[in-house]
Protein: RSE1/DDB1/CPSF1 first beta-propeller domain-containing protein
Organism: Candidozyma auris
Amino acid sequence: MGRLIHTIQRPQGYGLAAVYRQDEYQLLAIADRCTIQHYIFDSTNPEYLCSEHAIKLRSPIVALTSAKYNGRDRLFAIADNKIYECSMNAQVWGHIEETTQRGVDSTVGHHRLHLLVYGENASVIRVTSDGRVFKYPYARKSQTVFLGSLGCIQVKLTATLEDNQTVAVLYSGYDLTSSLLYFSFEKENPRIIHQFASFVEAPSLIIPMNYGGVMVLSNSKAYLFPGLNQTCDLPDTYVDSSSTRASVSKGVVTIDIGLPPYVYSLFTAYTKIDDTRFLVTTDSGQTALIFVDLLFTPGRFGQSSMLLKSFTVLDVGKSTVANSLVHIQDNIFYAASRFSQSVLFSIQPEDPTLRILSFMPSSPPVLDLAYSYNTDSIRYAPDIFVCQGSYHNGELRKITYNTWRTTVLSSIQINEPFAEIIRLLPTNYLGYHSLDSRVYVGIMNASEISRIYEIEDDGLLKKPGAIKLSNFSIDGTGISDAKMDEKGEFEWDRVWTNDDFCAFKVRNDDIKFARVMRFRDTIHIKGGHLVLTTQGGELSVKLNHDEALVCSLQFVYFRDEPYIIVAYSDGHVLFYSGSHHQLKHRWSLTCSIRKAGLVGALLCLNNKNSIVLVMVDTHGTIYQHLIRRGNIVDSCVWISKNGVPTGMNSDGLLVVMYDDHKVIGLVPKSDYFLELADFFYSPKVIKSVTVLLLYNYMFGVLLRDGTFFTVRLKDKTDVDDAHFADQLWTKALSIKNTPYLICIKNDIASSNGFKRSSTINLLDGRSMKILDTFADGEHLYTDICLLPEDKSLEIGAQYFVAIQDDGPWSQKFPIFKVEDFKVKAVANVMAEGVPLRNVSFTSIVFSDKLYAIGNELVSIELEKVENGYRWVHEGHDSAKTKRMLQYGMQVCPTQLGGVVYLDSFHGAFLQFPNEMPRRIGSLTEMLYTAICVVPPIGDEPEYIVAGDTYGRVYFRQNTIMLHSQINVLKYIEEDGSLLIGTLDGGIYRLTSQATLETYKIRKLYGTCTKTFNLPYEQNSDVSEDRAIYPSMYIEAALKRRDIAKDFIRLAAFNSSSDKGVNKTKASHLKMPMEKFIDEF
């Protein structure tokens, strides 16, 4: 079987937004990948934005704009080289020849709408209807007419002048100089009518002005350009302010902006408030109001003049790095960002300050990825740490396989050292919950229930989970189990008494295990028999196994029939069904993987009202067996990468497993199998965990120090495990066998001439808490990597090396260590062998020696000297490398002694000692942006994985298309999978090759891949054992066909593909494959 590509983090937020009016409503349209979601602002709503209709396209949206045409506002989008009108639904208005677009603007002439589409080359497109330009075109009749090109220029931004007939284009030419030109239409063709001189410094934003010209902003200047037949000047009475100074040259007014936050910033987006006020944002997240007071004087013969009376820049605070900035209404604005969180905010007119109303999630570009299996708790899939951001804003996120938000509600202290917690109510015998919101737990100590506590679980209460002592009591000793009588549980207004509690009391030592069931029925093990006691009498069946090895006795009701399991610590599980007439042994199984024993086993119900048997063995492996009509029909396996659960508990629906510090769970969701999820981490030692109620996903935790507290879970829809900052997180490194995470964060010091500097941060990867920050305020660190433990060099397990990019060669590679929860610099680390020129490095990796790449590729070895360390420079054939190296981005050593390196200009190369570099791939067809070397796995030799600017990942003979530039490739050595990070913030995982022993699923996958339009590509000549399949889309395809049997198997395959092996028997499809294909 081939590999699967899994989506770990879906790209969110595309930095595109527009506003337009529809009837009496002002609509905010936000593009999120392939969807345009419409909102209406409502100040009375706590979330402010009320979701309206959504429009879904088949491909990612690359441009969005609104325009008034034929008396009404319209919304236009570009996706998949098509123009869509998206006001109510998506209607194709035409096609575009260019393969890449950067933006779209519009201009409306006499009964005509022109869309200005710009990217690598600029073109102008007119949308008409069969040549009849005076009639509004219906979508089915509309056509696109290509009018012409503006030449070989790269357009940055466009703006339509006030007359709606002239367009200003801000562009850069072949010589990389930036300029401004005006063009208009002459007999439907674009005609350049004015070309201005090149800018001294690169501009970043263009704004149309009400007088007919445009304002262009750069990092320290603002330029006011005149419109057609117009002049710009300064009046004699103009007075410079403390932050702005103005001058005139060649009819263009230049204003020097001296406001410190904006001197070194690039402007990214704007929106017009009125004729004199404009709101702008910068690449550092600053937001400012620009006041432009102009005196307009019309002249004769269409001539006019414009005088600048005043120009003011007012800082209002930080919002986000906006790609689109729109004015919704009054003082309400929305900033859409590709590089940080998108923000809805207001500006108070009486005191111009920014007030953030709400955030909208987005996924900035992925800068680096790290992973960790190495915590002091159970682990089935790695935690993934991602650095994301751009410009000066960034975030550091932690992504687990399924993270839930936890809230500790209430706690009490239990002083009995040997106390246990048992749930008395709800019973959940039938897989649903009581209408009552109360939960009762008993404190059992030495076979006595000393106290009963009531726990509130009403979600409407201000303090759900509150624990209070109850007046109830259960008298007697020798209690093995107790529950509330089911009759009392389902009577809404019942007044409960002590008589409603049913306890199983053991009168001698013959009974090893006992459970209270429905209607005061019980089951227990006695004298080598399983005994079911009901109101009609006692039924028993002999257990053909050693009674002393029993570790679990569990039951669940299905259609009023109890199903019972008896699990043994040597791995045997016996399955029984019972009734008032008989107790029947149905089947038995043995846990056989690596001859493991069992920690425990239990029965529960999934979301499809089917029974699932959950087992945990002594290696930490989790098994799920789907049971229908009393027989196992499918299974899936999760193999523990670290740690073994010490206990498990269930209420019949929710399953929790725990060790000394970690609680994980199995949750019934839309699948046939329960979904594995991360729940809770405790720094203190956990003694036991008890599921209280699935209604609010609440459970109780008893610590070894006697503290008992309630925890409520919520499926996380936002991001809690993240650090957001106006600095940029650039690198993340996980230290093996520890929970530590080392990260680099870059900052720009505005108080020190905007000098860049870095800090090295130590975090606890479990809680994402920053433990220590190493900062000297002087140096810029660009990369870090671990040093392998070496006793001969006195290098410990928590040593790492960094690149100090702004220091001399002798101090380029400082060494640090983690000690006493702090980052400490190792003293006396020097580098020898000075290179021939000043060097700058971006990436390092250690494999027997340290490889560093930048404007040079060097290899250096570490030696121990008296009182310190010395790096010895080898050079690594730098003379040969220089011929092919412009500026290196990444270097990866191979096991054969060579290196693979990636150059920002020339592409990827493979080089062996004393040989010339050999190019990988074709520079004309692909521009690589990330590389990774996968070591040998089994019989497979090592090979290179590469990603390019178009979003393609080259994996052996495969090509996977992810539709966004590949920024990061990270190999996971524990299981042979590959992490992929993209420019649009997507994170994917390519799993290692899976093995399904009996089920021939590969033909089914091949069918789905060919039949459905999936957003991934693969070469047709790839053998089945090397093919790559998108798991989630095939699963959706099977869901639509409602092929339950195969969907179950597919779910098992998805769950176990990179974690274990499906060992169940498989039946054939119910219909021939040819008919199956046709019906798809």
Residues 1044-1056 form the longest helix (13 residues). Confidence is low (pLDDT under 50) at residues 120-147, 488-492, 994-1024, 1056-1080.
